[in-house]
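Q&A log
Question type: sequence-to-structure
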Amino acid sequence: MNTTGVEFRQWCENEAVHWRRKLGLYAYDPLPADRLAAHLHIPLLAPDAIPDFDATMIMALVTTGDSGWSAVTIPVPEHSPIIIYNPSHTAVRHEANLMHELAHLLLGHRPILIQTDLPILRQSYHPEDEEQATYLGGCLQITRPGLDWAIGKEMPREEIARHFGASAEMVQYRLNMTGRHQAPGL
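Response status: OK
Response body:
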């Protein structure tokens, strides 16, 4: 699917609203990643929640901070995949990380590399797959109708971010990608 194509972007925008409707939410409601993951039966685990996992390895994984890994999806044969996430990240980065991983799954992407040689957790996708997951992940966090709703309420960028559990950078990304504009000073 062409990442820059109008059809792909419209599909993503519709998909974000679709998942909210399935969960009884409006397009302008926040959609926490853990709620979407639970609905999709995809477990989200911090390293310390993995049974029999070595405490030294847990510390190595979670102390890498922003310079380290964010989240990784581990395929499990004949079961739902598992997303392991770095709990040391901020709440807004955590949401973006999880939505990005969920977007890969919703798009049916298959990684070209999975590295679980602890303490390294990493996966790689084709660049186009990464672009698609970034776009869909952003839509899942902040729908276009939700952005229009917030702009109509003259919400400042920081308030939009708080409402959707997103970063100010994600709000700006969605404004840029949708061609929406706020009044000066917001």
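Response note: The chain has a mean pLDDT of 86.
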